[in-house]
User: Fold this.
Amino acid sequence: MMVDTKSSISSVSSFESIDESYESKFYQLLDVYNEFHKETTKFQYLNNRHKGENRWLENRLKQLE
Assistant:
């Protein structure tokens, strides 16, 4: 049985380019995820801060009533 060398090399090349494409997409997705995580962490901090301010204001309002 003879193996078509050109076909085999072409297949390997094709798989390597597919792997590189997936790797590139993976790192793009990872960058987007890290950016998203960074932004959501900021929102979490701000949300917690505002909740604290709301509790303080509600307690202050009750004291004034």
